[in-house]
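Example record used in the benchmark description.
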Amino acid sequence: MGLLALQTDTPWPLTESISSNVSIWLWTVFSIVVVTLASWLVEMKTHPLRERVFYYVFFVPLASQGVTYYAMASNLGNVPTIPSLNVERSDDYFRAEFLIHYIPTFFVSIGVNMNLMLVSGVSWATIVFTIVVTLGMYICLLISAIVSTNYKWGWFAFHACGVVVLSFLIGQTGLRESRRVGVHQDYRLLAIFALVVDYAYTICWGLGTGSNTISVNAATIFHSVIDLLQLPVWGSIFLAMSRRWDYDVMGLHFTVDGRSNTGYAKTPNVHVPVNHGHNPTEEHSTREKVYENGGQPQPTRQEIETI
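Model output (structure tokens):
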């Protein structure tokens, strides 16, 4: 299958591209991703409907990863680039660069960091900032990949700065808040794993696309191993750990309660039906019962309409 793909799908005149053996390996990666996606779908069914937020965040990145590796194994989605180092500059040398690979990189990195920060219990502002930093990091790396001069290293430096900022957000801010919600041990292991993968990706890019130190085959295999570690492996460990976490303590109670009115007013140790009628006597009686049971009073319809 790998040799057939290389024979039929070679849209550009490339001096250096993937070999048939690497194509076969990419088909293997594609298969692993598909099996992982199917297993997560089955596993998700064992969770309550409103405790599946981590699965939802992971599904789009994993699906995009599968589609991308299908294209890469078919030798599609690459463009010719001219390296700025370790090659004689000429119009005849073109190195294959899979720009399509940056699409799942965006989704996977955002999904991994978003779930990690959700677990830590940080504020939504910190989560949004983390997502923006992650997106900016890989946009800089994408721009650097298509620049054929040494100016690409400026964009790479911007990416490296983003990695440092991300390390601070995950390693310090997230770890500090995870102690407050009681998941710091699990969070520490997951954070170390995620950051090591981020740094490995940066090193791989610098050796391959950046400096042309390693071949296209070596760089492609390196990237694929990192992708497998980043989502199928890391994600499976994450989801396995999530079974023992308390969604309420982590501030993820919205995934349990949902956004709709279930018809019950939640008070400490008492559940009183919310009165949707207009009878003041019944509303007053309901509020008195809440007081008698040591709960908090629920506002009446007239009070809500006044507000």
